[in-house]
Specification:
The chain has ten helices and seven strands. With 245 residues, the chain is an alpha+beta fold. A hairpin with a 5-residue loop joins β6 and β7. A four-stranded antiparallel beta sheet has the order 4-5-7-6. It folds into two domains: 183 residues, Homing endonucleases (Endonuclease I-creI, Roll); 45 residues.
């Protein structure tokens, strides 16, 4: 059933429009003059229907616009049979791209807990043709967050796989979703606790503090006393920092 809608809102350069475009890249399709989207999460589909001014009771959103859809496809390089033909444009490192990535994660990603731990892990798995796209996403997230994680790769099953277990990056992504006021899937993102400090995060905090004290002329013993650590603990931090130089 065709849905009456204003698809031109997807052409706007604002975070929410880019978020929905990212979700369409993952879960929707645009062929010729038509957009189709059917989400398993019906409340979320209703949010999108409201965004484009469509009937929010439809099982599948199917809207046609011969003037606007071609422009949307061109803007995001949406292609037919997108599973095997991902977009080939390279996204810039800015907040609009972050919104697009978060939308894509809501469509094709999952956020769960690591086995036997309270640390979260984000996973995205796509057809192997999507590896360049995931590499682009990875580059943008690492550049803007200031932290690094393992690059996406082709896994043993032949899929393009992107995983982020770095708690700092995951919290950064959630903070971006909040600050950009994106209509994200709360059931997915609520697993990331913004107040939690992981062991890796604490190690990073300790390294920053050790560097600050070294610049002030503190020696190993003085640093240990100032940070309530053992001398051996400070020595290990210094050794780890030196090995990365």
């Amino acid at each position: 059933m065709r849905t009456k809608a204003d698809l031109s809102v997807l052409l706007r350069d604002n975070p929410v429009s880019h978020y929905w475009a990212g979700l369409i890249a993952a879960d929707g399709s645009m062929v010729e003059n038509r957009l189709k989207l059917q989400l398993a999460d019906k409340p979320h589909q209703k949010k999108f229907a409201q965004f484009i001014g469509a009937n929010n009771k439809a099982i599948t959103i199917s809207a046609q616009d011969p003037l606007v859809v071609p422009d949307i496809r061109k803007k995001y390089d949406f292609r037919p049979k997108k599973t095997y033909n991902p977009p080939r444009i390279r996204l810039e490192s800015n907040s609009l791209t972050v919104a697009f990535i978060i939308g894509f994660i809501d469509g094709d990603g999952s956020i769960g807990f690591q086995y036997g731990r309270t640390d979260c892990i984000l996973r995205v798995k796509n057809h192997q043709s999507w590896l360049p796209v995931l590499m682009n996403f990875h580059s943008v997230v690492c550049q803007l967050s200031g932290f690094h994680s393992p690059e996406p790769k082709i896994n043993s099953d032949g899929y393009a796989a992107w995983a982020i277990s770095n708690n700092v990056i995951l919290k950064w992504l959630k903070q971006q979703a909040i600050s950009l006021q994106l209509p994200v899937l709360q059931r997915k993102w609520k697993r990331i606790d913004l107040q939690r400090v992981s062991l890796a995060e604490q190690a990073r905090i300790n390294e920053v503090r050790v560097t600050e004290l070294q610049k002030k002329g503190y020696g190993c013993i003085d640093i240990a006393e100032a940070m309530s650590l053992t001398k051996g603990g400070v020595s290990r931090i210094m050794k780890r920092m030196k090995e990365r130089e």
